[in-house]
# Entry
Amino acid sequence: MATYVVLANWTQQGIEHVKQSPERTAVGKAFAKSLGAEIKAFYLLMGQYDSMWIVEAPDDETMAKVCLAIGSRGNLRTVTMRAWPEAEYKKLCKAIPDKTLKPS
# Structure
């Protein structure tokens, strides 16, 4: 499963109904699970973004469906990034050829 970090901000509609946000989060988790993805963690944030989720999904297409469906409810705008855990990062670094390409 691939890991994704989703940064989200409430829309005007979302913040106007912020008290219902925990219930909306539960619905989002259930929906993600129905597609084979899992929202592993949710964090309320201070600063530029209102919340962050750590999500595991089988592929980018599934992750796009999760974010599009959740966003289509009108309460959030999201920024989604693929994330590689440290073990995968180390594996990627080991696979880099020893000699770098030089411009001609």
About this structure: The radius of gyration is 17 Å. Helices lie at 12-16, 21-34, 60-71, 86-94. Residues 7 and 52 are 5 Å apart (CA to CA).
